[in-house]
Design a protein that fits this description.
With 67 residues, this protein is mainly α. It is built from three helices and two strands, in the order E-E-H-H-H. The chain has a single domain, classed as BFD-like [2Fe-2S]-binding domain (Arc Repressor Mutant, subunit A, Orthogonal Bundle). It has a two-stranded antiparallel sheet with strand order 1-2. Strand 1 and strand 2 form a beta hairpin.
């Protein structure tokens, strides 16, 4: 994962599509699952290098909601 800013929302989680952490979080909060987020943003459809990071991030968001 690459960060160009101190703001975590601006952190790029998918280099192939340029999708940021903030965009993924926003789509998740709108009710999209990992497949829908992938279709909407293009994540998980390139090299596959972001797959674990995005899955882990969504898991953390889910756990945070349950807490």
């Amino acid at each position: 994962m690459t960060a160009k800013s101190d703001n975590l929302d601006d952190e790029i989680m998918c280099e192939c599509s340029g999708t940021t952490r903030g965009k993924i979080q926003s789509l998740y909060k709108q009710g999209l699952d990992i497949d829908a987020i992938s279709s909407w943003t293009g994540t998980l459809s390139g090299c596959g290098g972001c797959e674990w990071d995005i899955a882990q991030f969504l898991k953390e968001l889910t756990e945070h909601e349950k807490a």
